[in-house]
Amino acid sequence: MEIIIQPTAKDGSAVAAGIVARLLREKPDAVLGLATGRTPLLLYRELVQMKLDWSRVTTFNLDEYVGPPPAHPASFHCFMWEHLFRHVNVPKENVHIPDGLTKDVPAFCRQYEDAIRPAGGIDLQVLGIGTDGHIGFNEPTSSLASRTRLKTLTAQTRSDNARSFGGDDRVPHHVITMGIGTILEARQILLLAFGHAKAQAIAAAVEGPVTAMNPASALQLHPVVKVVLDEPAAARLSKADYYRWVYDNKPDWQII
Ligand code: F6R
Questions:
Q1: In the predicted model, what is the mean pLDDT of the chain?
Q2: Which of 113, 139, 160, 230 is catalytic?
Q3: What does pTM read for this prediction?
Q4: Is 205 helix (H, G, I), strand (E, B) or coil?
Q5: How far is Cα 70 from Cα 65, in angstroms, rounded to an integer?
Q6: 2, 68, 96, 256: which has the highest count of C-beta atoms within 10 A?
Q7: Domains of the chain
């Protein structure tokens, strides 16, 4: 894992945008795995301002709530079109977001997985992290080999997301999410975490044991992971000084 600690979320998002932009310039038909939530908002804003060519890009979103229609303001469909897709020239048919209204969840999940392979596999997966260590909506105890499927949110995650729904009890219990096994198949992973609320989950994911109790710790098994943090999210890392030194002293050929 490469741990990149930046002073603020804005600085971290600029580093992340540089990584995504470089991929899109080098591989115009790249396949991106995308996250929603507060964390990638500044990244998406930066990417929009960069005016990159998205005409051959394909995207797969990590997850979606089961129940709310795509037009619901808290749905991840709505989020992605609002904050990214409508501002870039990505073809609508290249955008994939789990269908939270599907009548046959297992069949839909199989089709979602089956669409990733012919698209070429995910080149870069953008991730946020939950306060309980979830990635996608793979809550603690999710199998580290899991595939796209239905999951039930924990009370903590429902409470963390209550703001978008106007109250804890309005947050759906169920979601469709890519599995940890699905995420680990991406060629490169970019995990972002900003703010003090993420410090404990990040410390456990980066420096703790690999355990289903902190699903993000499974990223230790992936060979190409960059973790971009602001100072508050890095606050509980015991080797933060070492990570800073490594990043500040990278050989030129290794930059980004
Ligand atoms: C969203 C997702 C989740 C979020 C996580 C953090 O697509 O997969 O894992 O990344 O819940 O959410 P925020 O960024 O709102 O703190």
A1: 97
A2: 139
A3: 0.97
A4: helix
A5: 9
A6: 68
A7: 2-248 (3.40.50.1360)
